[in-house]
Write a structure and sequence with these properties.
It is a single chain. The chain is mainly alpha-helical. It is 73% helix and 0% strand. The radius of gyration is 16 Å and the shape is elongated. The two termini are 27 Å apart.
């Protein structure tokens, strides 16, 4: 059951985005924060899978699956930061207030992640490991840049 809750919350968040955000306004800050944290964990798992494959073997099917997971989760992530889900919500989050104070900058960073993750997914099944590795590094740099600006130190 513990593993199902983050998956359920991620699914609810995805449904909210598809429904034009109608559900997002109904979700509590705690539910929204839990959904985005679960989505970030899924993104991290995909990045780890990509790194592992690129470090040895580079199985095309595994690369493609991880890259598609990354691209899909990246697409959802930007919408999981509605007003009221920051530090002032009272729920533990590493999201800095800067996300909401600099919303256009944050939204641009989220859009860049989607673009770069989509490029990675496009390359992942090509068999060109060097190109996949190069784009993997771009995606990692995109993540790191956003973390430096909008995520609290752990």
């Amino acid at each position: 059951m513990n593993r199902m809750k983050p998956m359920l919350l991620t699914a609810l968040a995805a449904a909210a985005l598809v429904a034009g955000g109608a559900m997002a306004s109904a979700a509590s800050p705690a539910e929204t924060i839990a959904a985005r944290q679960a989505n970030f964990k899924k993104m991290g798992g995909a990045m780890k899978a990509l790194k592992d494959e690129l470090g040895g073997g580079a199985d095309k099917a595994k690369l493609l699956a991880a890259a598609r997971t990354l691209a899909g989760t990246a697409r959802l992530q930007g919408g999981l930061f509605p007003a009221g889900t920051g530090p002032s919500s009272g729920v533990k989050t590493d999201a800095l207030l800067a996300i909401w104070m600099q919303k256009p900058v944050f939204d641009a960073a989220a859009a860049k992640l989607v673009t770069e993750a989509d490029k990675l997914a496009g390359l992942a099944g090509s068999g060109n490991t060097a190109a996949v590795l190069a784009q993997f590094k771009v995606v990692g740099g995109t993540c790191a840049a956003c973390h430096r600006q909008f995520r609290a130190e752990e």
